[in-house]
Amino acid sequence: MDVNDLMQFDLFSGMVREKLQRFIEKSEVYSKRFSAGSMMVLQGMPCNTLNLLVSGNARATMINAEGKQVVIEFLQAPRVLAPAALFATQGIFPVNIEAFTDCTVAFMGKESFTELIHGEPSVLDHFVNILSDKSIFLTQKVNSFALQNLKGRLASYLLTHEQVETQQQIADFLGVARPSLARVLAEMIDAGWVRMDGRKIVVVNAAALKSFE
């Protein structure tokens, strides 16, 4: 495991490189490659390692008993994957995580990471920040699904994502059928709030979109 792979994470930014290197050498830390389209994590499987997306892009999805799937978020390295699962009471992954491109993931055993955060206050502080940011993100996600109509959810998405994916990926992320998304997007285009630049959606009137959030 290359120490440079871990130093790119804010989680370890407060540590001295040499000390982190020694920790890697004596602890259960390893990495694994995943090809695009492969599943890195399965919803419901036990979580006993800290999982770090070292390179590549992935997406987290959730599926219910009826087989309906929704995209929770798109993930870009460097990123801690499902951080709350590690110390949760049940200790299971709440989502599936799929490699969107070729990815490398580093794994750190729970006991080793627990030892690290007890001895390195900066790592503990950063980990708490990551958990807090995740909590706020999920609260906003719930608000989007429960309190906003489709136009408001699409407006929020377009305002917070610099690079917009295909319409199907947006539909998956918002948990709606693509024809429904296409209809609302067409209304926004007709109103002059957004425009299409090839397959890219460009925001033209951000103020108008914010009024729907």
What does this structure look like?
The chain is α+β, with helices and mostly antiparallel strands. The chain has 2 domains: 3-144, Jelly Rolls, CATH 2.60.120.10; 148-210, Arc Repressor Mutant, subunit A, CATH 1.10.10.10. 42% of the residues lie in helices and 25% in strands. It is built from 8 helices and 10 strands. The protein has a 4-stranded antiparallel sheet. Helix 3 (110-119) crosses helix 4 (121-147). The longest helix is centred in the middle third of the chain and has 27 residues, at 121-147. The protein is elongated, with a radius of gyration of 19 Å. The protein starts with a helix and ends with a helix. The mean pLDDT is 87.
According to CATH, the homologous superfamily of the largest domain is: Jelly Rolls
The CATH C-level class name of the largest domain:
Mainly Beta
Q: N-to-C SSE series? A: HHEEEEEEEEHHHHHEEH
**Would you tell me the overall average pLDDT?**
87
Number of domains: 2
- Radius of gyration equals 19 Å
| Portion of residues within helices | 40-55%
Could you tell me the strand content as a percent range?
Answer: 15-25%
Termini distance? Answer: 44 Å
Strand order of the largest sheet: 1-8-3-6
Task: Kindly list the characteristics that best describe this protein.
single chain, 213 residues, 25% strand, 4-stranded antiparallel β-sheet, 10 strands, Jelly Rolls, 2 domains, alpha+beta, Arc Repressor Mutant, subunit A
